[in-house]
């Protein structure tokens, strides 16, 4: 597997191992940072790379910096150029995972809003080992953060502490992934991924008011499902719907699309990835790699 050797920090390319922040900077001390995870996919026909839905990720990052009240954030154009450049500089020979992050970089207080620095890195990241067979998930005893506490639609680094606790507990109990409920007891999402269920031939996903991240991958699935003629509902989802669903899958930049084949040790459907999940996996794979002519606007060529 290729290795990352170059990172861009505040517009300057430098050796990956030499990137530094002071340990008492606000970004480190209080987790005052927002980030995006993206992927650069390799087209198998010509070896070219494209960053998937780069513009949508950059728009969400700008929204996050606004809500976090960052002073003088970097421009979208600056960040867009840097994302493409960091892929070029690292010259991967397989897919790359891209981390773009903005943070408060100097020592300050919890109320500090600047100065804002940023970093972008391209890293190797293998696909989930359970991509083909599916995940064993559990409904976590930890509750999803709420919009009035730590807005989950903002991709803030600190928001992921709740997901970390849920994932650690799930793995200690022998599961692959944790599913979180809202404070109202409705299904929200998995720890670091959105969730879809198939019920009576209808694809169902928790709505935006269910304390979810407004996921770019979730939006992609909604579009692909509509184009495939699969009916979709965005609504409140009860916990027990997980137990009676015909199929369940997670989606996100890191997870991509991966089936959930059991929840709380109850099999989902026949306990194997379902036909609709596999159909959407194939459609997603084609559109991110550019082996289809569909949605060229989603692929930013490196």
UniProtKB/TrEMBL annotation:
Family: Belongs to the class-IV pyridoxal-phosphate-dependent aminotransferase family.
A UniProt-annotated Pfam family: Aminotran_4
Source organism: Falsiroseomonas frigidaquae
Entry-linked InterPro entries: Aminotrans_IV, Aminotransferase-like, BCAT-like_C, BCAT-like_N, Class-IV_PLP-Dep_Aminotrnsfr
Descriptive protein name: Probable branched-chain-amino-acid aminotransferase
Keywords, comma-separated and alphabetical: Aminotransferase, Transferase
GO MF annotations, alphabetized: transaminase activity
């Amino acid at each position: 597997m290729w290795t990352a050797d170059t990172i861009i920090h505040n517009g300057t390319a430098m050796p990956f191992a030499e990137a530094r922040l002071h340990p008492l900077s606000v970004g480190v001390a209080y987790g005052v940072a927002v980030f995006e995870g993206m992927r650069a996919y390799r087209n198998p026909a010509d070896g070219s790379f494209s960053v998937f839905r780069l513009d949508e990720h950059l728009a969400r990052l700008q929204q996050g910096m606004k809500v976090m009240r960052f002073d003088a954030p970097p421009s979208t154009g600056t960040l867009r150029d840097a994302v493409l450049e960091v892929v070029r500089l690292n010259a991967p020979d397989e897919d790359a995972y891209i981390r773009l992050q903005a943070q408060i970089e100097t020592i300050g207080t919890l109320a500090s809003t600047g100065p804002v620095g940023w970093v972008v890195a391209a890293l190797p990241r293998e696909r989930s080992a359970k991509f083909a067979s599916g995940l064993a998930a559990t409904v976590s005893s930890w509750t999803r953060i709420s919009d009035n506490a730590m807005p989950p639609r903002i991709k803030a680094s600190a928001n992921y502490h709740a997901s970390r606790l849920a994932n650690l507990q799930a793995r200690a109990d022998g599961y692959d992934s944790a599913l979180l409920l809202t404070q109202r007891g409705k299904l929200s999402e998995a720890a670091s991924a959105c969730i879809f269920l198939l019920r009576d031939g209808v694809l169902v996903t928790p709505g935006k008011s269910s304390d979810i991240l407004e996921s770019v991958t979730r939006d992609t699935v909604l579009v692909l499902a509509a184009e495939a003629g699969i009916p979709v509902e965005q609504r409140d989802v009860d916990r027990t719907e997980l137990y009676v669903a015909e199929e369940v899958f997670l989606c996100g930049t890191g997870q991509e699309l991966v089936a959930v084949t059991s929840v709380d040790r109850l099999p989902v459907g026949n306990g194997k990835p379902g036909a609709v999940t596999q159909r959407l996996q194939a459609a997603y794979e084609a559109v991110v790699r550019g082996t289809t002519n569909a949605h060229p606007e989603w692929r930013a060529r490196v």
